[in-house]
Amino acid sequence: MRHAAWAEQVPETLGRRPLRDVPGVIFLSFGLMKAFASTFPFLVGAPGLAVSSGPEGFARLLTGLGVPFPLFNAWMVILVEVLCGVGLILGAWLPATALLTRLCALPLAVNMLVALSVGVRQVLGNPVVLDGLPVMNQSWRLPLEVGLLAAMVYLLWRPVARWRTGW
What we know:
By secondary structure, the protein is mostly helical. It has one domain (15-157). Helices cover 63% and strands 4% of the residues. The protein is built from seven helices and two strands. It has a two-stranded antiparallel ribbon. α2 (17-36) packs across α4 (54-65) and α2 packs antiparallel against α5 (70-90).
């Protein structure tokens, strides 16, 4: 059966909208927190730690994780989370929706794979240690990261809703 002409022009369905918007808002807010939050020590779970805010503080955490080029990678994570988060939110209304969705979902999926590897390591008893204090021992993040990864994989697989008849 052929689809109605108007259905071909509608880029999203109401049911799929949250699969783009919710992760987009989460990534955008986490990216902005990493970039601007003055409460970064509280975000990493170590309020007694003297860590600067912004990308420098996040880079210090990445140093504790053993990430090479920590300041460069801190900026990359911030840019990916902010720009791709906005791309997911606005992507349904822009031209080339499928391409934009995939271009945003792929780096965010990689971001979540790295975050999951860190989270699993911490749950297994290897927390990040900065200045002798264990930080980032936050096992509550694992379900969030798994959910965000699953949403990104789904958006990579099916970036645009397909209108079907005969459900």
